[in-house]
Amino acid sequence: MTTVDERGPALPSKRGLSRRYVRPRRTPLSWIRGGGLTAVLFLLPLLFVFGAFSWYPIVRTAIMSLQHTNFVSAPTWVGFQNFAAVWHDPQFPIAVRNTAYFALLALVFGYPIPLIAAVLMSEVRKRRGIYSVLAYLPVVIPPVVGVLLWKTFYDGSSTGVFNTILHWVGLGPYPWLNSEQWAMPSLVLYSTWANAGATIIIYLAALTAVNPELYEAASVDGAGLFSKIWHVTLPQIRGILLVTLILQIIGTAQVFVEPFLFTDGGPVHATLTVMLLIYNYAFGNSLGGDFGKATALSLMLAGFLAVFSLVYLRATRSWSTR
């Protein structure tokens, strides 16, 4: 018994129970006739743009990290001396410690605030759109404008906005940005205000996907508000929480705007971060910075974040799919 199929010549079947087909041999001519060449021609402009603006800078960065160059004099090949110089720089451990401290504070205080705000806003029945706009408004304010505004809030004198408010309850005044103790928490407070709006919108979108019947079932079982949040809301948006967590860690590891505009790494390097140290390497000298050390530290940071992200995603893979 034989069968015929448009996919190719058929082989005799065994007792009519199975059929095997011979796949037509693929040749360059058949690939062209199948539209392969046309697809490549359409992809060439995209591949060129992607390579020019993505892969070429990465390759160029890797090359510069092995050179001593300041874009003024001719570059010289130094191998891994830039990485060794960065590793033994006394400011390097300070920058790493400050970056980790910023990330920890942002995780403890800045991570739960958008979630709490989104849950509260999702319970509001009227004017939810207005609250969403107000929450997202700090995101659209230019960082320079926001920093200038908050610098008036952080005025260390008794007439500063925050110190005036605290004086009403018998506290302060505090030096804020001029204090090694308060400078980093002050930056975290501003960063939370400036960036929480985008995360709130993400959480609000995730909360709309939660099945209302789960809340109704929890109400029938006598669950209160906090019990519903803990046993219904959080498990349903677990995947979103894990994604926003890794994004926040990556973002805080690359913090630059806040310490650069507020304190320029001071006081006494209390807010010097890894990204600010990279900037100082590249542009700290008016006669031409050391771009080799800057790119070397950039690759070190990128490598750390890549490894950390891989470990994090593997460790949380089972949690996000439960």
What do we call the CATH topology of the largest domain?
A: MetI-like fold
CATH architecture assignment of the largest domain: Orthogonal Bundle
Strand content: under 5%
Question: CATH superfamily name of the largest domain?
Answer: MetI-like
Helix content: 55-70%
Q: Quickly count the domains.
A: 2
Major sheet characteristics: 2 strands, antiparallel
Radius of gyration: 28 Å
What characteristic shape results from the CA principal axes? Answer: flat
> Which structural class do the helices and strands define?
mainly alpha
* Largest sheet: spatial strand order: 1-2
Count of individual beta strands: 2
Mean pLDDT: 85
CATH class group of the largest domain:
Mainly Alpha
Write down the secondary-structure element order.
HHEEHHHHHHHHHHHHHH
Could you characterize what this model shows?
With 322 residues, this protein is mostly helical. The chain has two domains: 28-64, no CATH class; 81-320, MetI-like fold, CATH 1.10.3720. Helix content is 66%, strand content 1%. The chain has helices at 28-33, 36-64, 81-87, 91-110, 112-122, 128-140, 143-153, 161-168, 183-208, 212-220, 225-236, 238-253, 257-262, 274-283, 291-315, 317-320, and strands at 67-68, 76-77. Strands 1-2 form a two-stranded antiparallel sheet. A hairpin with a 7-residue loop joins strand 1 (67-68) and strand 2 (76-77). Helix 5 (112-122) packs parallel to helix 9 (183-208) and helix 14 (274-283) runs antiparallel to helix 15 (291-315). The model is unreliable at 1-11 (pLDDT under 50).
